[in-house]
Amino acid sequence: MTASRQIHLVRRPQGVPVAEDFAVVGVDTPDAGEGQVQVQNLLMSVDPYMRPRLTADQPLDAAMLGGGIGRVVQSRNDRFKEGDLVRHGAGMQELFVSDGKGLQTLNPDPALSLSVYMHALGGTGITAYGGLLETGALKDGEQVFVSTAGGAVGSVVAQIAKIKGCYVVGSTGTDDKAAWLKDEVGLDAVINYKSQPLSAALKAATPKGIDVYFENVGGAHLDAALARMNLRGRIAVCGMISTYNGGGEGVRNLSNMIYSRIRMEGFVASDFPHLQVQFVEDMTGWLKAGRVKYQETILDGFERAPEGLIGLFSGLNNGKMLIRVAD
Amino acid sequence: MTASRQIHLVRRPQGVPVAEDFAVVGVDTPDAGEGQVQVQNLLMSVDPYMRPRLTADQPLDAAMLGGGIGRVVQSRNDRFKEGDLVRHGAGMQELFVSDGKGLQTLNPDPALSLSVYMHALGGTGITAYGGLLETGALKDGEQVFVSTAGGAVGSVVAQIAKIKGCYVVGSTGTDDKAAWLKDEVGLDAVINYKSQPLSAALKAATPKGIDVYFENVGGAHLDAALARMNLRGRIAVCGMISTYNGGGEGVRNLSNMIYSRIRMEGFVASDFPHLQVQFVEDMTGWLKAGRVKYQETILDGFERAPEGLIGLFSGLNNGKMLIRVAD
Lengths: 327, 327
Known about the structure:
The structure is a homodimer of 327-residue chains.
Chain A: E1 2-9, E2 22-29, E3 37-45, H1 50-55, E4 68-75, E5 85-88, E6 95-98, E7 104-106, H2 123-135, E8 143-146, H3 152-163, E9 167-172, H4 175-185, E10 189-192, H5 198-205, E11 210-215, H6 220-226, E12 229-237, H7 256-259, E13 263-266, H8 276-288, E14 296-300, H9 305-311, E15 320-324
Parallel strand pairs in A: 8-9, 8-11, 9-10, 11-12, 12-13, 14-15
Antiparallel strand pairs in A: 1-2, 3-4, 3-6, 3-15, 4-5, 5-7
């Protein structure tokens, strides 16, 4: 038995989550029983997809959902030995016991930071890869628009599209991110949607229209994109962060879908197990060659997970937001 | 040279079209020259798809776009003889001259009314057939929702779905149409969206959710359907009549597309030439067996075409709206 902590949801957020919706709760974590492991969390992920689940299926007064990377500290399970690194979906717990189901042993490439296995080589990476190439059915050299292109998913989408020879426009909400996307990542055009009129800027930035729109935002972003979609364009719907906290404008340009025969389709990271091997091979190569760059915002301290999650909605993060629990 | 008439658009409608947006204009139609035919219009179609084009590509002070059935009255073209019936897209003209391109000779089944070649066996029929079976990828026995199920497209969609063993819910805007759909067509549930709260009624009528939504309306209809879509549901976007005249609410439930992996896709009648032979065979059989029923609203008199088109937006029609120009 070891004293540890969990992050609990203690009430359902109204609109943007606030600190008081969460609590850091002390618990006693049991030792590993027969067939079990005890895992210490090292890195935890906070992601926009969590917001709708706070209103839906996240139980109150229980450990928050979420994924992370941990280290096996006790093992009574033949599949794992002490010291193994594992990727897990065990939620926001400093320490937890598992029968091994849902734990994936990691053998990280020594040339890469462990944290990339939480984003470019993790859930956000396969989301970008599968959503763009399979749901979006991207063809080399097409015209691509990516919303929240400075985010963990969007920045990978934009770079895969560049690797595939596409003309790529990204939107983002800060000048810092815009500069990184233009100067470091090499996008063809970047729109700061907070300081520029989105529809006019997108029109100017997409003289050949849009073949694939990778949708992370919804609302006005979707309306602006719909007005620029080419015949048989695809909209891969990964997220609609502008709508998760309520409010926002309804979408009005959907009738453009008819004559332009636009296909819009939702997907989630777990839709692409059949792409996993190719994804890891491609992405490891791109990262090591510097062809996919990334940013991370890492908050130190388990108790800062709510702050990190809340910060996603105010643009606190540059790239992937992570919580460092231990080294 | 023969005196005849055309319907012109004389100004672009603001919102719902009004009579003053159109004019009936006298013209002299030349005789058929070498390689040409002169065609007398018999039946003309007015359709919701025309509305967006009044704002877009319909020229002012020229014959209105549109399709119809005519009779060849002069022929100097080997492909046609006098008396042939032809389906055409020559627009709203009493009499016109053509080189034969775009004219399709009709050999109507003597057991069927000629008018069905303007709807169930015409453009609205192939729209329903292709949109439901190909774009909607309907599988036998699925849960189907059809908006404007009393209309020319919707009523055919609903009946094909019933033939395919599906549970079918339709929405319509009048009690007359609702009664026809329930009693004559045999839908499983019918919602009058003008007298019932749409979302609550749709929820009650779809206890097993919706696998395919055939979309003719947009706005609140789409929001209500999105809230009921099953995993990997399809939304075949045929029209969004509620949005064509401006106004209306924006759509707010699009984020449901993500976790339910919904696919929404636009299409038009001309997308399905590869289905044409099978369509004619299936639909002729269904009509002759009474398995596809239809309603028509036929206005007598060429000059009533604007009235017919305007009436589409107030529910003047039961089923397909046609203009009878001559017998």
